[in-house]
Amino acid sequence: MPRKDQEEHNSEDFVSDFLRSLLEDSKKEEEEEKINYWSENNQFKRLSLSDYSRLYIPEAVENKITRLQKIANSIEAKVIQPTPGLQPVNQGKFKVDYWNSLNPGQYMAATTIKGPVLVIAGAGSGKTRTITYRVSYLIEKQVPPEEILLLTFTRKAAEEMMRRTTAILNNANATQVVRGTFHAFANHVLRRYASMIDLPTNFTIVDTSDSEDIIDLIRTETKVAKKNRAFPRKSRLQSIISKSRNCSIPIQDIIEREYTGLMEYLEEIKKIAAYYKKYKKVNQVLDYDDLMEVLRDCLRDYPHFRKRLQKRFQYIMVDEFQDTNIIQKEIVDYLAAGHRNVMVVGDDSQSIYAFRGANFENILTFPATYPDCRVIKLEQNYRSNQDILNFTNKIANNAKLGYRKQLFSTNTNLFKPLVYKFHDQEDEADFIGDKILALRENGIPLDEIAVLYRSSFHGNLIQTALSRRKIPYVVVGGIKFIERRHIKDIIAFLRIILNPMDAVAWNRILKLIPGIGKVTAGKIVGEIQANKGIMDFSKLEKRKYGANLLDLQKMFEDAVRPDITITSKIDIIRTYYEPLLKSLEDDYTKRVADIDILHRLSERYEILDRFLSDFALDPPSNQFQDSTTPLIDEQEEAPVTLSTIHSAKGLEWYTVFVPHLLDGLFPSARALKNIEDLEEERRLFYVACSRAKEQLYMTMPSWFSTWDEYFTQPSRFIIETGKDVFRLG
After folding, report:
1. CA distance 198 to 709
2. CA gap 720, 682 in Å, rounded
3. CA 25, chain centre distance (Å)
4. H or E element that contains 419
5. What's the rounded Cα separation, in Å, for the pair 146 and 202?
6. Who's near 275: CB < 8 A, 6+ residues apart?
7. pLDDT digit string, tens, across residues 141-196
8. What's the CA angle centered on 614, arms 613 and 617, to 5 degrees?
9. Single pTM value for the model
10. Are 659 and 451 a contacting pair, CB within 8 Å?
């Protein structure tokens, strides 16, 4: 062999040997990683609850838990058990075959219509179906539909129940049932009976964002906040004031329990809350909490009003009763005090809205409020396979407090929930991305897959992993339609037409005009209110903004006419507003398209206060939010859902991933200091896992660090279920 060829051959051998050596080293590293990985998982298997820090429970709290659990345990004596010989009663006189359309528990719940009834409906047990058939049964029993009141937590839920009832009965009688959210119901009856309870009929409803703006205005005008200190933000103040009212707890107690760092501002916060209450009364505005408080107070203080509503609504049903707050429970009790035909439906294991004021105790103490109540349990699950139910049953029944349930299913597909532990967050996210691709290859549609997390930031790396793999996804959340600047502006114009005393709306609109700031706007609003809402800007004509104010006045004079439709009012407003919007926003054309949507929504309404009330109480936040990744077009498949667990309640998917399951992340570190918070976190975990129909994947990195904490242990909620109800991946 020539020398040159020999050298090339030797060189090739060297490269080949080098590459082979690298490959062997790589394989060794992979094997070592696998050994380390499985070593960690063997350690995972050895973990027990004794390895976790114990939570101190004060004696008063322990006594409270004991008292409530005693009440919860006592309901077993009140449970109506389906008997083997149970037969339908007078089935021939009904058009609907209730007996064969429902399981025994559902049948009893639908046909037990007299007196107080508590229905404990486990996840996926068909409570919507049960309520639907109960409404149908009442109507077939000749109960006038307008005497039936159905209270839900979303308008969508109420309308879905009525749509199903209409289909079952094959007539439109169900459309006359009074239904909707607590807030929508309060708005309806307060406006209808305003003269009876000394309330103005044209009050304005303000949302959370508007409430924050009012508080900010009060803080500025009253100079309560000292400039030499970092006073709490308006959103924090609104949260404190709202929670105090929803929970019927003094502001001081809220701060001592949840915001200890704000104790030095206690007196100022209490003053702001007092000013806030006066401000709303002067300006004839009600916030969400007012709707509940005013209705409760009027039912309590106006006997004629209370008796009128008791007579009108002979049968009351409340869905998701575990999510009611103290005031909402009192409203239900006042309405039902006469006839006592009240059925509440809920699942204590799914009470996850304490931060909104929901009172977990309401559903537990219902039998104490109504000692003669009958209790019906719905335990047959129509969503998940039995392996998943075995796991979620353990989660629920590990709770310190609650009704014991044992959900079962006829779905015997085998798929034990899987738990995976990875080196870091990136590996965890990559696994989820790869697994989703594999699931799609196996025929699982992307819209049947969801990633549900405890906090929004848990989804950041997962979004990146999906984007790299070109997997379309939608993030539930983002800026809601009603919260967009231009939509709030148009709504503010309409609110002034309805209620010229609405100072919040006036401040928003006036500050759109060049040359008018917060101080000037406040002075102009003061003049308008002094004139009882009458607009007259002629005195300001010579100011630099005078011509614009006169244009605004002319627009309102045209739009306020009672003989034109709401859509015509919006047309007049947008002619005035669009030039302002164009000068303020670069994406003007996109925002104008949103106004077109608002215009279309208004076409269904003839009465302005109804349109504004519906928009404030049940805004189209999901349908019009712009949170889908740009990967999606009309030709691509429906996306994977990424969502916080709170936003996923009531939904279901074939496959569910629950990531970041480290103790300190889920449950959160903050919850590890308070037993009631920890129990709510457990219920949140239950809700997440019970969304899965066939496959449940639970994942975690091996570590996670913050600026002051380092988390490495798997969530205690997994460990406490026991090793027999899940598998290690």
Report:
1. 55
2. 11
3. 52
4. strand 418-422
5. 25
6. 218, 222, 224
7. 899 999 999 998 777 788 888 888 888 888 878 888 888 889 889 988 998 898 88
8. 80
9. 0.74
10. yes
